[in-house]
TrEMBL record:
It is a multi-pass membrane protein. Keywords: Membrane, Transmembrane, Transmembrane helix. One of its GO terms (molecular function) is nucleobase transmembrane transporter activity. InterPro entries: Pur-cyt_permease, Uracil/uridine/allantoin_perm. Belongs to the purine-cytosine permease (2.A.39) family. This is NCS1 nucleoside transporter.
Length: 366
């Protein structure tokens, strides 16, 4: 197919058509109520797991093992800092999902229902998926002579390797269905419904969950996500940059709940948007949290700029190493700052709490 996009756009005409088709499949999913998404998520999981293990079996069988990259010497100047950076990047990528879990756990029928998924399912699936990705990339490197970390590019290379035979096209198609189903589920969970809930909470008079989801879909398209997939370095930089914002927010929430309020919440005031509620702070704005957020974020920006721009100036080595600790550093600094600021300038309502009231009782007393 003739390409009408410039090379610098990192986009081709056929890929753009794929984006449009993907949006056509994604937009209807937003109309499904969140409490009814469990079955579509199960289908997505089965399809994605089949694609992952299918690629793993194909790669290991054809390369005769896990590939030679496991015996290759490290190319990073410091293996230890490279490992730390990788851990921090993954934590930053999963930070948004962690902060948004309350959007979904509130649909649980039992208080401890989410515990098993958070303690077992999430770490296991993350680890297994990462290991499969590493093995497949290593094995594919022996087969094709290049590192194909992106499964989209790998599937395209597989189809070319077998001269686009009927069997190759069928295999690539079903593997792609699993990948697409997984991306649809992730976008509904992390980007669509969760963002729609947040926007609906900010402006409920005009925005509901569905409208907020569509606004986020439009913003996502305008952000040109294909630019983020141009190369692996840029992709990891984006993942780690999430931690610059997610880590301080996590530290603020941990400090506020466990140390400052000592796990005491006045639940009815959480839904009171005026001066009568203890969470109104100063004109509805909690300046203490902003101070803690900026404190945990600003020191990480020099390292991010140097890393993304591939600046090797020795004077920036310290900033880059601090950036490698993005999630840990950002969380710790914001946690400490939030605790100290609230100790010096304590917010109103500390120690106050109110029990959970069932919906039926709330209607009776209201």
């Amino acid at each position: 197919m003739k390409n009408f996009f410039a090379e610098s756009s990192h986009l081709t005409t056929k890929d753009f058509i794929g984006v449009i088709i993907w949006y056509a499949a994604f937009i209807p999913l937003v109309l499904i109520p969140p409490e009814r998404l469990q079955k579509p998520f199960i289908v997505s999981f089965v399809l994605f797991a089949s694609s992952c293990f299918g690629l793993l079996i194909w790669a290991v069988k054809n390369s005769g093992g896990a590939g030679s990259m496991f015996q290759s010497p490290a190319t990073t100047p410091s293996v230890g800092w490279g490992v730390v950076y990788g851990i921090s990047a993954i934590l930053g990528a999963w930070g948004s999902g962690t902060l948004g879990q309350a959007d979904w756990t509130r649909y649980a029928k039992r208080p401890m229902a989410p515990t098993l998924s958070q303690l077992v399912a999430a770490p296991v699936t993350m680890t297994v998926t990462a290991v499969i990705g590493i093995i497949v990339t290593s094995a594919a490197n022996d087969l094709f002579g290049e590192i194909l970390w992106n499964p989209i590019y790998l599937l395209a290379a597989i189809q070319e390797e077998y001269n686009s035979s009927a069997r190759a096209r069928v295999g690539v198609f079903f593997a792609s269905v699993g990948m697409v189903a997984n991306q649809l589920a992730i976008n509904v969970v992390l980007n669509s419904v969760s963002t729609g809930m947040d926007m609906a909470g900010l402006w409920p008079k005009y925005i509901n969950i569905i409208r907020g989801s569509y606004i986020m879909a439009l913003i996502g398209f305008c952000s040109q996500p294909w630019q983020l997939l141009a190369n692996a370095t840029k992709f990891l930089s984006v993942l780690s940059s999430f931690g610059i914002f997610m880590a301080p927010m996590t530290g603020i929430m941990l400090a506020d709940y466990f140390l400052i309020r000592r796990r005491k919440l006045k639940l009815d005031d959480l839904y009171t948007g005026d001066v009568e509620g203890i969470y109104w702070y100063w004109r509805g704005f909690n300046w203490r949290a902003l101070v803690a957020f900026i404190s945990g974020m600003w020191s990480l920006f020099p390292g991010l700029v140097a890393f993304v721009s591939n600046i090797t100036d020795p004077s920036l080595a310290g900033w880059i190493r601090l950036y490698n600790l993005t999630f840990f550093a950002g969380l710790t600094i914001s946690f400490v700052t939030m605790t100290v600021v609230c100790y010096i300038f304590p917010p109103v309502g500390l120690g106050e709490e109110a029990p959970f009231v069932p919906v039926e009782q709330a209607y009776e007393t209201g």
